[in-house]
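Handover notes (outgoing to incoming on-call)

Open items:
1. TPR repeat-containing protein: sequence verified, structure written out, both below. Nothing else pending on this one.
2. Nothing else urgent.
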Amino acid sequence: MNLIQRQWARAERYIAEGQLPAARAALETLLREAPGQVQARLLLSSVLLGQGRLREACAQLLAAAEALPGDAETICTVAHCLLRVGETVAARACLEHPEIARTRSGPTLARLAHVRQALGEHEASLALMDRAAAHGFDNPDFRYFRSLQLQFNGRVREAEEELEACLRLGPTFGRASLTLARMRKQTAEHNHLDYIAAQLQRVEPGSEDHAAFEFARFKELDDLGRHDEAWLALARGNALMYARQQHDPEHERALFDGIAARCTPAFLRATAARMEGPTPIFIVGLPRTGTTLLERILGNHSQVASAGELPDFPRQLRWATDCHGGSLIDFGVIERARDADYAELGRRYLAQTQWRAQGRRFYVDKLPPNYMLAGFIHRALPQAPILHMTRAPMDVCFSNWKALFGDAYAYSYDLDALAAHYGHYRRLMRHWHDAMPGALLDVSYAELVQDPEAVARKVLEFCGLPYEDGCVEVTRNRGPVATLSSAQVREPIHTRSLGEWRRYERRLAPLRKGLGNWAA
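TPR repeat-containing protein C-alpha cells:
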C-alpha cells in the first residue's frame, strides 16, 4: 500500500472514530503528496465543516474546482458542495466543463439538473432532465422534479401529464398528488378525491407523503366548497408534519431577541463602502405575503432582472462569521457578527450574485426569510433597497397553515406556534424600522392587488427607478417561477386571496386569539 492509500485509509478510520483532527492531518499529508486528489479535497472539506471551519472548507472546495477530472459525476459533486457553502460562481463554472456536454449517464444528468435548479437556472435544468430522459432515465422522483421544472417554465399542461406519469410509477407519492391538486381548481366532475382516498390506505403512516395526501385532499375539498371535510384533512396534515419537526418555540423567541439585541442603531450605523455594478433589490417578508407577485412586477421593468430566491446573503454572512450551519441564522452567527468585516461581506455577496443582472442595472433577490437579516443586509449593502411585503395577519397565517413547506418552516404546522412566530416577526420588523429608519419600504399586499399601478410607482421610486407602462401586466412576464405561487402569478392580478380565511373563521378562532392585538 503506497503513502496515498495509507493516508486515505487512516482518514476514513479516524472519521469513523470521530477523530476529526487526526483525519484532517492524514488528508493534509495525502494532499501534500498528491495535490490533485479531488476526492481527498472533498473529504477534507467535509472534515473541516465538521470542525466548524467554513472558510478553510471553502478553500479546499475551490482548489478541487481547479483540478476537476474528466468525470461528470465528480464534477457534479464538486459543484453541489460549492453551492452548499456559497461559492456560487465557482459551482456554475464547474458546469461549463466539456465533460458535462459529453456525458450520457441519466442519473448524473439528473443530479446536474438539480444543481442548475439550485442555481435558479430553470431552462438549463429542464434541458438536462430532457437529456436524462432521452438516455432512458426514469423513476417517480425524476418524473416529479421534471414536472416541477415544466411548471416553473410555464409549460403547465405538460407538467400535469408528467405528474400523472409520476403517480402511475409511484402511486403513494404524496407530493406529486398535492402538486397536481394545486395545478387548477378542482370540480365535482374533475377531481382526484377517490384516488387520494385510496392512496391514504397504502401510504406509510406518519410520513411526509402521508401528510401531503392530506394537504392534497384539503385543496380539492376546499375547491368543491366542502369546508368541514376540508378543514379536518388540513388539520390532520399539519399535525402529521408538526410531529415530524423539532420545533422549539422558546429557542425561536430567543433567536429573534438575539438578532434585535445585536443589531442596535449604533451597530447598524457603521456602513460599508459604496457598491459598484448592478444593484440588488431585496424582497423580504413572511412566506405567502405576495413576494413573488412583487418580484414579477419589478421583473417587467427594462432595468431589472429577476434572480429568484437566492441563498447567497445568508451563506456569505456565514462565511463572514466563519460559522458553518444549515439554518438562515443561529446564535453562533449572531455572536460573531459583532466582529465581521461588512465591507468584505458586501463585496463577496456582490461577487457571487451580480452575474444574475444579465446586463441590467438592478436584480431582485427575493428570499422571504431574509427579513431576519435586514440589518446585516443594510450594513453590508447600504445602497441596496429592501422591500418588505406585508399582508393582513389572518390572511398570511392561514395561507401558511394551508401550505406544505416540507421542513422549511416548522412553525407553520401548529396554530399556537404560527401565532407566536407571527408576533416575533412583527416585533423584529418594528425593530428594523426603529433602528434604521428609511432603510425598508413596507409594501401592502392588499394595496398592491387593489391598485397595482399606484403601489408599483411607489416601489420603483423607492428603488430609484422610473415607472414604465406595462410593469403591472404580470401575464407578459414569461420568466421562470420556482415558488408555490408559480401558477397564480401567471394569471392577471386579482383580489381573490383577500379574506379567504373567513370561510374557516370558526375553526381559526384559536389562531386569532393567539395573535391577540396583531389580528386587530
